[in-house]
Specification:
The protein is an alpha/beta fold. Helices cover about 30% and strands about 30% of the residues. Strands 3-4-5-6 form a four-stranded parallel β-sheet. It has a two-stranded antiparallel ribbon with strand order 1-2. Its EC number is 2.7.6.1.
Length: about 140
């Protein structure tokens, strides 16, 4: 997934390999690649308590990244998540609006959201009409 995104954006990439002992607990995290003097963007499907992404942000900063952003599909943000984000080295944590974020944004100014309602509506319309949903991967409606 990382290689595909980096190729489409024509940028280099690094990745963080994580090993879990159990849910919501990272046992080990290893950075593969060079982030020295670069802006790092963490991409993940969801963040719940945000321990993992905050740990990853710290690892990136200590490896020489100049700034760290996170881009997440689903921002659950339960328990200590907001305080962790507020205390982490993120410039911003960007999430989609699959979950309402207005209340959480009041307590955590680093959270920003992207409205994906139009693409979800188009995916539903295409599914209903038997049209290709994968077409949306290369043709995003505005």
């Amino acid at each position: 997934r990382v290689t595909s995104i980096a190729d489409r954006l024509n940028v280099e990439f690094a990745l963080i390999h994580k090993e879990r002992k159990k849910a919501n607990e990272v046992d080990r995290m290893v950075l593969v690649g060079d982030v020295t003097d670069r802006v790092a963007i963490l991409v993940d499907d969801m963040a719940d308590t945000c321990g993992t992404i905050c740990h990853a942000a710290d690892k990136l900063m200590s490896a020489g990244a100049t700034k760290v952003y996170a881009i997440l599909t689903h921002g659950i943000f339960s328990g200590p998540a907001l305080s962790r984000i507020n205390n982490a080295s993120f410039e911003a944590v960007v999430v989609t609006n699959t979950i309402p974020q207005e209340e959480k944004m009041k307590h955590c100014p680093k959270i920003q959201f992207i409205d994906i309602s139009m693409i979800l509506a188009e995916a539903i319309r295409r599914t209903h009409n038997g049209e290709s949903v994968s077409y949306l991967f290369s043709h995003v409606p505005l």
